[in-house]
Model the fold of this input.
Amino acid sequence: MSSEKGFEPRIVAFLCNWCSYTGADLAGTARMKYPANVRTIRVMCSGRVDAQFVMKAFAEGADAVLISGCHTPSDCHYQEGNFKALRRYYLLKKMLPQFGIEPERLRLEWISAAEGDKFQEVCTEFTEQIKRLGPSPVKKGVKNG
Amino acid sequence: MAKPKITFYWCASCGGCEEAIVDLAEDILKVVEAVDIVFWPCAMDFKKSDVEAMEDGSITVSFINGAINSDEQEEMVKVLRKKSQVVIAFGACSHLGGIPSLANLTTKDKILEASYLKGPTNVNSEKTLPMVKVPVKEGELHLPELQEIAKALDQVIDVDYYIPGCSVPKQLILDAVTALLSGNLPPKGSVLAPKKTNCDTCDRNKTKPEKLEIDRFYRPYEIELDEEKCFLAQGVICMGPVTRGGCDERCVKGNMPCRGCFGPVDNVFDQGAKFVSALASLFNAKTDEEVQKIVDSIDDPAGTFYRFSVAKSMIGHKV
Amino acid sequence: MADNTIKIKINGFEVEAFDRQPLIEVAEKIGVKIPTLCHNPIIEPYGVCRVCTVEVRHRNRVRMVTACNYPVTNGIEVFTDSERVIRNRKLIIEWLLGRCGNVKVLNDLAEQYGITEPRFGRGTDDCILCGLCVRMCQDVVKANVLGFFERGPKRYVSTSFDQTSDLCITCGACASVCPTGCIKIDKLEEGTYKEMPMGPVTPIHIDFMQAVPKKAVIDKESCINFKTGGCKVCVDVCDAEAIDHSMEAKEKEVDVGTIILSTGFQLQNGEELKEYGYGKYPNILSSLDFEVLNNANGPTGGKIFTRDGRVPKSIGIVHCVGSRDKKYHEYCSRVCCMYALKFAHLIKEKIHDCEVYNFYIDMRCFGKGYEEFYNRLLREGVNFVRGKVAEITDAALDKSEQGKLILRAEDTLIGTVRRIPVDMVVLCLAIEAQKDAKEVSHFFSCSVGRDGFFIEKHPKLAPVSTAADGIFIAGAAQGPKDIPDTVAQAGAAASAVLSLIQQKEVEAEVVTASIDEEICSGCQICVGLCPYTAITYNKDKNISELNEALCKGCGTCVAACPSGAAQQKNFRDNQIFAEIKGILAV
Done:
């Protein structure tokens, strides 16, 4: 990463296979432009996203993490996985600042398979927000695991 | 044949692990008989220079406890590593960073401030803080510096084995020493304690309801703690499920929830984060508001979930 | 079974009959017609009008009997047209004319028997006291509303105390059997329709002639049997014995391996668009309303009338109502342009000089022969106004607009706002997803898009599959489409199903989770988290066990497992850590 001015955030996005990943795919096939800053990792369900993944992402130098799944209350392909993601998200959001990581760097969104435009919007907005926030305070220092 | 040489060294330590050795009581005599303790600052009068004078690898085993947060400790453990065949991280602090590594959630300046300037019983009108160099009659005295970040032992030197616990239970020490002396050791890097978590042997495990759901959390002092029911089922945070077993659940048997001092089991890399995933899954909440309410009933998630393991968390310290 | 066939002679012909069978039935069997007035095959005979009186000879005795209720016995000889019978019959008819001189059925009989000047004059009553209505109401319908009152010349048919009866269920059976037509049921004038029924509206009916399946159904609400326990005439006349009033709806559980969801669409409720006045002005019809009106089985037999029975001189057809509209549905409903053109053509065919106005945004004639059809309409003189109708009102600005519905639209081709008064308007309302499409989709583990229609697995490559294996979609449930496209999709879905169910083996879910029993400590945190109850706690072993057959592979248990004992194939912790590391390596 270069100076603050030319700072390009690196955002890791965990997308659930059925809704968000498909929605992102739709954004792609519809040729919607969104920043290349968002790097996606597919999981079957947002409920698979372990807080360890989030911590690992930050530890490896991610400037922000996005978790996206099917809309609550009833769109989860596996019925309830998105609720687990929601619960872990709020607890993580409380804990991250204790490690000096701004809570805004973690974001949870519900993006359905039809919402390619929402995916585009979220990626664009999030990238802008993190650009303004600046690089992650985590330096690749003490790393474990 | 010469008896194997062993050392005990303490870094940023409360002394509890030294106590643990002493607590072996009569059994300690067996240890003393079988080995030659060549360095034990707590109990014996050997000096650093004595160690430095030894041949490399001449020490069979060094038991090092305590987190590393000063220059002196860092230096000493490096020397011990050079001189030892096997280095064992003894106790939670050297294994995971322990309580001293809670300092990593704040800054050195704030710590010094709290200890020397803002403490309610401080009398320090000159606002003196620990110094690294101080002129004395004989010349200039160099003192070890408190480091910004407290580290676990393996973040400074290579560690062969870990014996976990705050402090290490007697049986675990005996088992480890027996294994060492008989040469019957697991692969290098192993933790010399059971592979499963506390729930495996905890008496209260079977009292868990079929579907565990938590509406809110209570600090242990806030409610009358049931002596037989699983703490999580009572809404009290217990790190038992995410903590390696081997301590005979001594805390739980004392009607206090587990604090996680043995660290995680092998397949888990960040004990605190893992517990976030596990615990949050149990919230009885389906909307943002409901979830937030339950989260609000957890004071200090980092301090609670990483009580002993901040140094070994993926982030390691407050950035 | 005792054989009770006997032999009798009618007009010299020997004929077989059942012992005590009514004579009129036997005569009918051999084609001998005996006139009747008070007889109806579904009602018990009464023998009151006497018109069917015939001669019966038994041994040496001759008797004049009414054929409708005379039970035949072995060896009788019947004469239905002897001189004596005819003379008798004429007298009876004259007597009846003396009471009801202007009743058509009597006059027809009079003509048949050559009575020109009835000797007893012509009475003015129109009820011949045949009792058919009474017997129908009492014995068949069992509503017990009508009865005979008084005696002799004062005898008449009425309801109790001559008052409107609460018991009358307005079945109209009395009117249907009255031979003179003196029982009247208020009929709507031809062409005036309040509701929009399709086809006849009897309690047992076939919905409409084009129905699939074309089978009769009984409307429980109006069927007499469900009200009084009577009637069941339909059962009597059904040769196939297919009618069973005691049928109850049954719930049946069927095990299937694949499902096709083709739950169709609903037409938008026109009342949502207040500016068009649907539901406010009676002569504004929805497209479906117009289809019903135009149908030969509809309320007017296919003739196009306004609600008050006039032939419209001008009709406006409004395209894109609720479609291509950010306020309602952004999508195009695909089928409306073509059916609007169809309507225009049909109107022109039925009412040659009717002015038809089609208000459109674009003319979407995308299919085979569609554009050609549009061109044909241009030649037929249909008026096309390129402009979205802003409002429909009956507020007339001048005399020419009075009593009409005025459509206001900007004609964008000439750049002017126009007011076009018409007699009737047809609205091409949007094709919407069914109201409960979202619930249905959840039930079948599919999803619906923002437009409410079921989402296909891939818009180009898998238009009939859904995210859930074995569940397919077809037809308008997937999106607005016309019949050729629906048929094609239905075929595609059917063939997808066939290929699936013919396979001997199917690939099961691959990315299932598993619990390592060497590591699992039996904390049971995962057990309650699984929505498929795939995990159970084994008390004896103190571990949790996962049934891979039930696991759908969400990975929630894996994330929650505090000892890392649960892992998911292809999504193991170490695999995802590696992905994270790799993704951030540059």
